Amino acid sequence: MNQPEAKELPYSNYYVAFLDILGFTNLVLSKKKNDKLKIEKYFALIGKVTERLKRIKSEHNFGSIIVSDSVILSVPFGNNLTEKIENLRQLLVAVGIIQFTLAGKNIWLRGAVSSGLAYFNPIENAIVGPAYVNAYLLEQKIAQFPRVIVDNKIIKELGKNSSQDLIDEINNKNEGGLNFNNWNSDILFDREDLPQSVVKLSQDVALFVDYLSPAFSSSNKSEFRRLMDYIELNIYSDNNIYNKFRWIVDYLLVSCEKYMQAQNRLDLRKKFIQLKRY
Fold first, then answer.
1. Rounded to whole angstroms, how far apart are CA atoms 110 and 241?
2. Distance, CA of 114 to CA of 132 (rounded, Å)
3. How far is 148 from 180, CA to CA, in rounded Å?
């Protein structure tokens, strides 16, 4: 019997984000009604957010695949340096929107963004190639906390000399900041303007998505309160996850200090004091 002839996959250059839900296995095995509802809420939210992103950013050829507890996003490199930077920027905004939206429902993501060759077919729910493998391995081995990190190799690929150069470029820092209607906050976490604080955020990675930065806008005060409630609910619930939520606390603490210093916001001081107690 003749075997079907194998076809060479049409690889292209992509940015790929691999996102994974923390504690998904425990939710699946749980018999609690609330945990079952949380899974349903997750799938509904992911579907809604990814469809909205496709509509908003259709010109960027976003691709998305949902497989169990994982979300895989892709966007083509682009044809020149300007397009490459803009496409990466928009992918990172998409990641931030998903993370922030799900965190507001007590669903926490970990993941990584990488670059390179990949074959991406959302219709067949198929993705293969080095870009996907790199993102997956970074999520598994390096991301560790509820954060989405960015592959260091992208710094040199985009002609930058340091992580701060890429942060400035992605955040449009040299042009006075961002004006995206769907984000309007820092995209990559920026350590350069951090105050000299007693709170120290781990510097084990150079780049990660600043997904909680929208919580500091005046229009999201209720979201900040909700995030703190979820931290209080989770941080002591299981010894195995304490370090993960402790990282979120440190991330929020240094962010609070940064925003208080920049804007002298008194409303953040009460939250800062409360966070320090965890």
1. 13
2. 7
3. 20
Identify how many contiguous H helices and E strands the chain contains and give both numbers: 9, 6
Beta bridge partners of 64: 73
pTM: 0.87
170-189 CB burial, b ≥16 within 10 A, e <16: bbebeeeebeeeebebbbbb
Contacts (Cβ under 8 Å, ≥6 apart) of 98: 19, 46, 49, 50, 71, 109
Distance between CA atoms of residues 111 and 121, nearest Å: 20
pLDDT tens digits, residue range 208-241?
A: 999 998 888 766 778 888 999 999 999 998 898 9
Phi, psi (deg, nearest 5) at residue 32: -75, 135
111-149 residues labelled b (16+ CB within 10 A) or e (exposed):
bbbbbbebbbebeeeebebebbbbbbebbeeebbbbbbb
The answer to whether the beta carbons of residues 101 and 215 sit under 8 Å apart is no
DSSP assignment of 197-227 equals -S-----S-S-BB-TTGGGGSGGGHHHHHHH
Structure tokens at 99: 């993370």
- Cβ atoms within 10 Å, residue 60: 19
CA-CA distance, 170 to 195, in Å (whole number)?
A: 22
Q: Token pair of 149, please?
A: 């990190």
In whole numbers, what is the pLDDT of the chain averaged over residues?
84
Q: What is the pLDDT of residue 26?
A: 72
CB atoms within 10 A of CB 157: 17
Radius of gyration over every alpha carbon of the chain, rounded to an integer in angstroms: 19
